[in-house]
Amino acid sequence: MIGLILMTHETLGKSYTELAEHFFGGVPEYLGIVGVHPQEDPEAVWQRARAEAARVDAGSGVLVLADIYGATPCNVGSRLLADGGRVVLAGMNAPMVIKALQYAPQAQDLVVFAQKVRQTGLDGIVCLHSQEGDASC
């Protein structure tokens, strides 16, 4: 099993937790949430993230989904890479979160799992419009 951490600004991770409850009837124990508040010390956030990573890691590693590349949640999450057995994907969206939650219990290869979750995020971005015959956006 691969552990998951959602590293987000403020309560965005909590909203994704509610989405998990909607889809799966509860929040799995292999999911950790680390919300970053505006005035919070990044060192304190890193300590919380490290503790969550240790809690959710069942031996196959931890996938960290961060909301925005280059922002504090991603930067702090990236510090977890030094512990080994961690992968960070930035720019998370709802399809990524659902895919990760659905398949993390069976996943064994962290990098392959991260690639599949990333691809699901890309595939979940779809352009719909009303112009006939033109599928481009």
UniProtKB/TrEMBL annotation:
GO terms for cellular component: cytoplasm; membrane. It comes from the Bacteria. CDD domains: PTS_IIA_man. Its main location: cytoplasm. Residues 1-125 form the PTS EIIA type-4 domain. Signal peptide: none annotated. GO terms for molecular function: kinase activity. It is found in: Cytoplasm. Its EC number is 2.7.1.69. Keywords: Cytoplasm, Kinase, Phosphotransferase system, Sugar transport, Transferase, Transport. The keyword Transport applies. Pfam families: EIIA-man. One of its GO terms (biological process) is phosphoenolpyruvate-dependent sugar phosphotransferase system. This is PTS system, IIAB component. The lineage of its organism: Bacteria, Pseudomonadati, Pseudomonadota, Betaproteobacteria, Neisseriales.
